[in-house]
Amino acid sequence: MPNSTLSDNENKQTHPPKKIHVETWGCQMNSADSERIYALMAQKGYQPTLATEDADLIVLNTCNIREKARHKVVSRLGLLRDMKSLKPGLKIALAGCVAQAEGKSLLKELPYLDVVVGPGTIDDLPKLITEHGEKSNVNFSLGFQKMRRDLPTPNVKEIRTVSSEEVATASLADKNEVSRYLNINQGCNNFCTFCVVPFTRGPEISRHPDDIAADAEALIRQGAKEITLLGQNVNSYGLDLMRPEETIEGEHTPFIDLLLKIAALDGLERLRFTTSNPHDFTYPLAQVFKLEPKLGRYIHLPVQSGSDSMLEAMHRKTTVEEYFQRLSWLREIHPDMAISSDLIVGFPGESDQDFDDTLSLLKKARFSFVFAFKYSPRKGTAASRFKQQIDESIKTQRLAELNKIQDQITLEHNLGEIGEEREVLVLYKHKKEENTYYGRTLHNRLVKIHAEKNIVGRLMPVCIREASKIALVGTLL
After folding, report:
1. Residue 160: pLDDT above 50?
2. Which end of the chain, N or C, is less packed with Cβ atoms under 10 Å?
3. How far apart, in whole angstroms, are the C-alpha atoms of residue 324 and residue 330?
4. Cα angle 183-187-189, degrees, rounded to a multiple of 5
5. Nearest one of 272, 293, 292, 169 to 226, comparing CA atoms
């Protein structure tokens, strides 16, 4: 009787691994979500690739904050449609906030779009892809669900994310393994009249602190020296986890407790967080910058406008005076505290005086830098229905004037660093400039350093020799 047993090599059927390509648009939370997508799909055997032409699955992780977001997504999907016609097995998935806001209508319009998943249901993506492969039908998962406790921690060593500005190209720097993002809550309950986040990411939902700590420990084991805790409003973290009968005792809110818990982890050099809403930024929270040196001397605290009437129309819950009170809390602790902010120009009804008030705030606050935007009406938000919409040319003029003033302030801050000795956490080596490294100071200022040996991940004493609006140049001590 012939031997029917095949050798191992003969019995094995070799299948090349499937590859996934994720393009990330928008905020840091989307960057963290993209890493989560890679980790989820890795459990299904997908390997990351920078090249769209090599991918078996392309995911667009989108942002819906600015106007024309939908148009940009449709344009990108149109380019991918041609690629799909040449590669029939290719699957295209739409994720992120545009998926939540426009996903169902886009599925009807674009037959070559296979899967849609919102930011609140990312963990459904592997199941949707599998079901689509088995049934060849379109799948979507939208809405907001409680964060699961069994999701994998992304391993950055296996991930190469691609931003929308770097589509299908490698970044100039290697993937940053030193500074990592970690989502702690999602959604927002504030309903600022200009903001679409409550509609695309839902109500505030917090992760359990033990899960966050476990993820932070995993990131540190992978090489992270700096972790940034992310949420639409981190200050209110954990309030939804409290039982109705529970009250906040003393000065410790759930977020303060979380900060102290993560800061105590061995191997972590720096801890940052974003974004904070000024209305629930408290004096005890400011004091944590005094108690915990790992928080450094930098915070992002969005104000949006320097006019009380505009802040009221935006439903921001904080006056200009109250905002400066919060800045004083921080600068009493560290007089050189670096503070950045968000500003909107051209909000409906913004008068010349309102805009002048914003410029006055800018000059008085002396921000390290700002993210300034022209108001963009978003579908479903209250402000999109306001009368007195501002002409686009006026918005453009005001934005240019504001940026000119802030650029000068930023340059003055940076020039003031010349001659100072700063401790720099080195984040990455430049890919094209030989022996060139980049890192950040405690004040979150970018520093360019020349070194003959690899110093990535190390805290290095540096003397600042040159400065521009963009970055500092330092010499190792």
Report:
1. no
2. N
3. 10
4. 135
5. 272
- Please check whether residue 352 is in contact with residue 394, taking contact to mean a CB–CB distance below 8 angstroms: no
Between 119-123, 243-247, 407-411, the lowest mean confidence (pLDDT) is in 243-247
CB atoms within 10 A of CB 297: 20
Mapped onto helix, strand or coil, the DSSP state of residue 146 is coil
* pTM, to two decimals: 0.83
Among 161, 158, 148, CA closest to 59: 161
Q: What is the DSSP letter of 453?
A: S
CA-wise closest residue to 380 among 196, 179, 203, 163: 196
Least confident span in 164-168, 349-353, 427-431: 164-168
Tokens 């390509």: give the residue.
Answer: 21
Q: Please state, in angstroms and rounded to a whole number, the distance separating the CA atoms of residues 96 and 111.
A: 19
The two counts, helices (H) then strands (E), for the chain are: 13, 20
C-beta of residue 53 within 8 angstroms of C-beta of residue 15: no
Q: Phi, psi (5° rounding) for residue 463?
A: -100, 125
Query: What beta strand segments (E) does 338-458 contain?
Result: 338-345, 369-374, 421-429, 436-440, 446-450
| pLDDT confidence of residue 169 | 28
